[in-house]
């Protein structure tokens, strides 16, 4: 019996990705774009911008691509391969909406603005983050990828990140889909059911900007006029690695150099206060008695 089990284990091999920090996706994956307008005539620039179905590309002397609106369909790269290229870098998430806009000449490496993350998120959720997912008119693509983020391959649970059924047990909400009118109230009531403090994460182009459905009368995005997301995870659908690296970056503790000045000042004060703590009477008496 034991031998059979060992045989099965050997046959299965390693099921999970050992080091998520070293994941490299296939070359066909469309991730972070690289833009170049050299040799692009004004007429060609206008055509390039107009072929995008969601208006994600703009040109004002430099090319810009808004990953929060991009469907990653690859049409622009296919028609203008010398000017638009998609790399296989899946690290795209940002704590700000502006951070999703890639401008020609930007450094090719992913930069995550740690200062833009609310300090209580890092303080309270660094070890465990349980999220309630709301598919607000989604097409089940981002939802499937989020499910995959927790499967045996990606296993984001190893970092304490997971999904929970009840908003009462959640630390935050993940929104997918463009938020259809008939899901607007449900999204708001789910958000209200999550106890404070809480985080809001939007996953996928549809959730970030409305995507192809942005101008549809069937969509009601009033929720985002009131609640600002803490993390934007682009993709259409978003890759599990884009989600996992984004959430991990959001929870990552700040280095000393990154800490805001108030925190640096507050820390020594807190230590001083701790050393000057007045001991309670019972503690003093027990010390006197040598206990
Ligand atoms: S890949 Fe993005 S930017 Fe390019 S055409 Fe498609 S949606 Fe527009």
UniProtKB/TrEMBL annotation:
<feature type="region of interest" description="Disordered">
    <location>
        <begin position="254"/>
        <end position="291"/>
    </location>
</feature>
<keyword id="KW-0004">4Fe-4S</keyword>
<comment type="similarity">
    <text>Belongs to the complex I 20 kDa subunit family.</text>
</comment>
<keyword id="KW-0408">Iron</keyword>
<dbReference type="GO" id="GO:0051539">
    <property type="term" value="F:4 iron, 4 sulfur cluster binding"/>
</dbReference>
<dbReference type="Pfam" id="PF01058">
    <property type="entry name" value="Oxidored_q6"/>
</dbReference>
<dbReference type="GO" id="GO:0046872">
    <property type="term" value="F:metal ion binding"/>
</dbReference>
<feature type="compositionally biased region" description="Basic and acidic residues">
    <location>
        <begin position="256"/>
        <end position="270"/>
    </location>
</feature>
<feature type="domain" description="4Fe-4S ferredoxin-type">
    <location>
        <begin position="61"/>
        <end position="90"/>
    </location>
</feature>
<dbReference type="InterPro" id="IPR052375">
    <property type="entry name" value="Complex_I_20kDa-like"/>
</dbReference>
<dbReference type="InterPro" id="IPR017896">
    <property type="entry name" value="4Fe4S_Fe-S-bd"/>
</dbReference>
<dbReference type="InterPro" id="IPR006137">
    <property type="entry name" value="NADH_UbQ_OxRdtase-like_20kDa"/>
</dbReference>
<feature type="compositionally biased region" description="Polar residues">
    <location>
        <begin position="282"/>
        <end position="291"/>
    </location>
</feature>
<protein>
    <submittedName>
        <fullName>NADH:ubiquinone oxidoreductase</fullName>
    </submittedName>
</protein>
<keyword id="KW-0479">Metal-binding</keyword>
<keyword id="KW-0411">Iron-sulfur</keyword>
């Amino acid at each position: 019996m034991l031998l059979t089990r060992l045989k099965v284990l050997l046959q299965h091999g390693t099921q999970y990705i050992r080091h998520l920090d070293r994941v490299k996706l296939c070359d066909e994956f469309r991730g972070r774009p690289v833009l170049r307008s050299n040799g692009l005539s004004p007429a060609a620039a206008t055509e390039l911008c107009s072929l995008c179905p969601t208006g994600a590309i703009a040109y004002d002397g430099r090319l810009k691509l808004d990953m929060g609106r991009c469907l990653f369909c690859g049409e622009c790269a296919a028609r203008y391969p010398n000017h638009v290229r998609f790399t296989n870098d899946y690290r795209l998430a940002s704590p700000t909406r502006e951070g999703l806009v890639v401008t020609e000449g930007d450094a090719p490496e992913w930069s995550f603005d740690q200062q833009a993350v609310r300090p209580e998120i890092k303080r309270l959720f660094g070890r465990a983050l349980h999220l309630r997912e709301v598919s607000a008119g989604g097409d089940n693509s981002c939802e499937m990828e989020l499910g995959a983020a927790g499967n045996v391959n990606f296993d984001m649970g190893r970092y304490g990140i997971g999904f929970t059924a009840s908003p009462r047990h959640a630390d935050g909400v993940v929104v997918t889909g463009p938020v259809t009118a008939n899901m607007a109230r449900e999204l708001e009531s789910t958000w209200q059911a999550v106890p404070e403090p809480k985080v809001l994460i939007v996953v996928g182009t549809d959730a970030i900007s409305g995507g192809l459905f942005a101008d549809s009368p069937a969509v009601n995005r009033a929720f985002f006029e009131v609640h600002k997301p803490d993390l934007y995870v682009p993709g259409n659908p978003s890759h599990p690695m884009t989600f996992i690296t984004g959430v991990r970056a959001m929870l990552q503790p700040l280095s000393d150099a990154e800490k805001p000045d108030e925190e640096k000042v507050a820390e020594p004060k807190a230590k001083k206060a701790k050393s000057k703590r007045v001991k309670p009477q019972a503690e003093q008496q027990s010390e006197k008695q040598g206990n």
